[in-house]
Amino acid sequence: MEQALKGKRAVVVGGSRGIGRAVVETLATAGAHVGFSYVRDEQAAKAVEEQVRSGGGLALAVRADSTRPEQVTALFEAVGRYGAPDIVVNVAGTARFGPIAATRDEDLEAQLALNTRGAFYVLREAARRVAPGGRIIQVSTGGTASPTAGAGTYLATKAAGEHLAFALARELGAQKVTVNVISPGLTETDGLVMPAPAIAHMVGQTPLGRLGQGADIADAVLFLASEGGRWVTGHNLRVTGGL
Predict the structure, then answer these.
(1) What mean pLDDT do residues 189-199 have?
(2) 154 assigned to active site
């Protein structure tokens, strides 16, 4: 799908590391001009910009916290200087694991702030600004379809983002805008914090016998963002290696 997005403008929320970085680099390689957000690590964000530019692409890093609606608006305005976005991908999320009975209020609030309210702010801004015929993609987690003990608050807050996306797909259909969810399985990133035995167990449960990689998720985003995804909307694409 080389240059499948040539001339398109994309916004990636949470693009400086992990899956988000892979999405930025993949969309840029496909020809999109990509604006992406980061919160704290400016050095990592600049490294993504440089990586994209060294490959002949265009990327713009913007500091923006998606738990703050005014910063989400500022992100879209920064990218919007070059025209309305054709593609919006929300990758940002956070996880706090533990039994529900032991969950602290502040742990729940942190997840609600980013996974639920943050998703709402991004999807609302995308709905207001995306170009006709555009693509909106909300990144969730495969865990919402296979819940496990200790992940209750995380999965609940991510599931809310999924349903916002499903409703938005119906609201924007008349504008030929597609809205979909991608739910990754266990993916090897610097944010993967699980004991080695637990990871080995999960890999053993996967028919394909390995952890997911950022590129696996980014290629699924590319499909939905491209012309090939034109007839897919209101769908949750589980990119989990078969789990």
Answers:
(1) 72
(2) yes
